[in-house]
Amino acid sequence: QYHDFHLNTFRHTHADMEFGRFYEQQYAVALFNSVRYEIEGGGNTQTQLLHRKDPLKNKSIFSGGLFQYLEESKKWRSRFLYVGDSYNISLYESKAAHDRGLHSKGVINCAGYRALTSMEEYLGLLNNSLSDTKAKAASAPFLKCPSQFPLILWHPYARHHYFCVMTEKEQKKWHAIFQDCVRHSNNGLSEECKVATPAFTDALRLYRQAKGHYGTWDMMCGNQAQILANLVMETLHPELKNLIVPRLKGKLQQRQRDWMLISDAVYRQVLSQTKTQHEALAQVCEVERPRLDSALRTDMDQIVTSKEHVSGKIRAFVLPRVEQLVRSKVQPYIHSILEALMEPTSRGFSEVRDILFRELVEVSKNTMNDSSSEKVGEHMDKISMLAFHPVKMQSCYEKMEALNLEGLQQRCDVSSPSVFIQRAQILMRQQMDNAVHTFEQLVHQSLDGHSGEDFCKTIQRCQDRVLKKYDYDSSTVRKKFFREALLQIIIPYMLKQLSPSCSPELPKYKELIFEDFSRFILVENIFEEVVLQSVSKDIMMAVKEAAVQRRHNLYRDSMVLTNSDPNLHLLGEDTIDWAGQIRGVKGERQGGEVANRKRRQIVSMIQLDGMPLLYESCQEVPGVDGIPEENEGQTEQDLETEKPVNPIQQEPIEKEPGSPDSISEIRDLINPVLEVIEKDEEERCVSAIESAIQQIEIAIQEDPSENLSEGAIDSDGEFAQTSTNSSPFHHDDSGFQSPANENVEEVEPQPITDEVVDTDQVISAHDV
């Protein structure tokens, strides 16, 4: 059975080669567009708010403790999780192991994952992925949770990760953080790469269209290697499931577990291959770039003239069919689609403004009694990272979750609204950060020469300026988002309708292109441009009409001169180090040197009154009187409503009247379950997969007439071994993620001899 399995592998290797051909073609086209834009120039709408570089420098998002389920040992174990500026989740044995600088036990890259908070939702997804293997909560021992508050990271191909906490408040906070990790990791293609990114996205789109797949794609998540791995698994995964799942032996839970381990091993092997192949492909294109760039700059005028000539011919052929399609199948639906997009998006941006207003008013109030530089710095330091506080931004993100495109999914081949939801949420975070950064710069500029009541008035003036600028930029960003979303929905539908009749006629237009220019002018791209231009006017008019009517607080486009606020544009792009200035002031007053800064944490951990630091889930905050978290300071009667549960019996534990040690007693009940495992967990992972493979081989040997899955299983065994050698690489804040870290790989703790990064916990704003 090796033959058939390796035949599948060969087919997908051939698919990678076919994608490589698309990528090389689109790379030359993207380079042409980039150089042409550079030479001819183009006008962008002048934004009112400032944008800062590297906002998360020397910051961490969150760290704390919870319980993790280890599939290999079938035990729950306490873990210390650290979420740094890359949004990768690092797992440690304990907070002490992290503070000592030991290597993490594993790293989870959340690209392509979904963060779940209920077993019912998880089992529903599990049933959908294994339609012939139905799961029930009561009959799945490895899914039993020691509390009523699970947290699950689910992936269609990679390993699932199971966590739990003891209170609903902790669950909500962790869920918001996990969702933010997924949101950031999915947004993995850098917009700063003006050639490589459009070349990749266009090649991917054309490749999928050649296979008959039009419209949005949910698994375009992560960096290039991860996206290509998802592309391969989209076809390979169902084939392997049909070959392997029917031959799995054992109880229901064991079969599910075996299949998930095999799927994860195959996915990691595919990811390793796509990473290597894409790096080689990108290197080939980069080596050729200087020659192409030189040819473009030499013959740009001739290339543009040739393209316009070919475009005119194709437009004359295509336009009558396009106009008929637009009139009958597109125009009647544009306004309804736009309305469906505008409602939740505008609610989300309005919520961003409300949160920003409340926080700025709080700063203004706090500076009325004490407007010293030190106090102002403390208050500003707390709101500096407001945009990256997932708990405080959660109410904004939830507004966008209401987006409903039902009815369009089948007509326009929209797989789900998640693509648009996550994009809008990323834009909300960017606008919040731009507004906070602009406010910081204005206040910092006003610190000198103002005091007392005058400074309070200055703060209020800065607040009013920022809110007005936010309103304008919010309108501009939303209108651009609406236009792009409408194009993403409508263009694939039109291409699907037009391609059967138009695509066979396109090759004859290649004869009109000079051979020297054929790398930069592709008839397929020109065809799509003609279709896009034909419907863009209707989309622009629909969005403009909404702005003229001031619907959802949209503004009409207006020209904003760069000197409209000259003082603002003279300010810097770097983050102001408020904490450093505060420490500098204190250090001068104390006559000593300020200690080295530690990496600051944006989100604070929960600690309920009377509850000890459960499994090291909280860090001390020395010298910081932060704004209280949500529900902090609530009465004991309120806290008693959040009852921990018994991890064995799955029943609430009633609090005895007047018993102050009930939390400790609950911990005593949990401790027997939290067994310390001495065996190396990486070896257990490999042995677990090998055990599943052995069971499958035994089952196959019972039926010697069928040998198809044997090759697949042996290959899976190889995958499990090779996948353990992947290593992370650097992630920058532009959105690239480490493709080797989307699954947990456990290693022995070893001291790090380089830099040890400590973490201070900072409470920066209100949780909502």
UniProtKB/TrEMBL annotation:
It holds the Pfam family Niban2. InterPro entries: Niban-like, Niban_1/2/3_dom, PH-like_dom_sf, PH_domain. Residues 627-639 have a biased composition (Acidic residues). Residues 652-664 have a biased composition (Basic and acidic residues). Residues 59-183 form the PH domain. Belongs to the Niban family. This is Niban apoptosis regulator 2a. It comes from Cyprinus carpio. The lineage of its organism: Eukaryota, Metazoa, Chordata, Craniata, Vertebrata.
